[in-house]
Specification:
The longest helix has 31 residues. By secondary structure, the protein is mainly alpha-helical. Helices cover 61% and strands 7% of the residues. It folds into 2 domains: 37 residues, no CATH class; 50 residues, no CATH class. The chain contains 5 helices and 2 strands, in the order αββαααα. α2 packs antiparallel against α5.
Length: 114
């Protein structure tokens, strides 16, 4: 069974600042270790900040990929390739929903973030 007082003492011995739940600093991150709340160390804050910055940079591409994947259900890349291989008369005979879907997917592909 966990011994909260022992866990507190171990965290203090490691140099961690414990959280007073009645007077918690809302501007600081908190981690719970074995049921004891402690503030992040400056190094942990820096690491987490770097992780969040990297995630923020990657988010637009991740969301774009999710949007592209959603269009693949109706119009896989092979369907686009077949469409592109058709002559203009054959493309004109396709249902408008198909043409519009393929064009919308191509327009989305053109918005790929770097």
């Amino acid at each position: 069974m966990l011994d909260p007082e022992k866990n507190r003492q171990e965290l203090i011995a490691k140099g961690h600042e414990l959280v007073d739940e009645n007077n918690r600093d809302p501007g600081r991150r908190v981690e719970y270790e074995n049921g004891v709340a402690r503030y992040y160390t400056p190094a942990e804050e820096d690491q987490r900040g770097a992780e969040e910055a990297a995630d923020a940079l990657a988010k637009p591409l991740r969301l774009w990929k999710e949007d592209m994947a959603a269009t693949d259900a109706a119009f896989p890349r092979a369907v686009e390739d077949l469409h592109d291989a058709m002559d203009a008369d054959t493309q004109a005979r396709l249902p408008s929903a198909t043409k519009n879907g393929i064009m919308a997917k191509k327009a989305l592909r053109a918005t790929r973030p770097e």
